[in-house]
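Below is just one:
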Amino acid sequence: QVQLVESGGGLVQAGGSLRLSCVASGRTFTRYAMGWFRQAPGKEREFVARWSGGATYYVDSVKGRFTVSGDNAKNTLYLQMNGLKPEDTAVYYCALQPPGSVSYVYWGQGTQVAVSS
């Protein structure tokens, strides 16, 4: 089993920044992919960013504002969020896709991000 714990959420004014962290513990993998997702009230969960062996991918709405990075030694995934907008308000989740899996299997409990206008 893998446990994922997010932190770093909070309330920030529009234009501000936050840095989310996700620490993985338990079973470890030599190679894996991790991602950030978010779910706003009344909306479906959506993909935000992915980190896989240094390669990164983003949803169009956050490109140029968010940066995803990982530290294998610390089993930690980060999401640096700059230029936050009220529409970024959501619960942010990290997830891990084990080797050989076609989907994200492990999920964190989420951290709330609220952006005021």
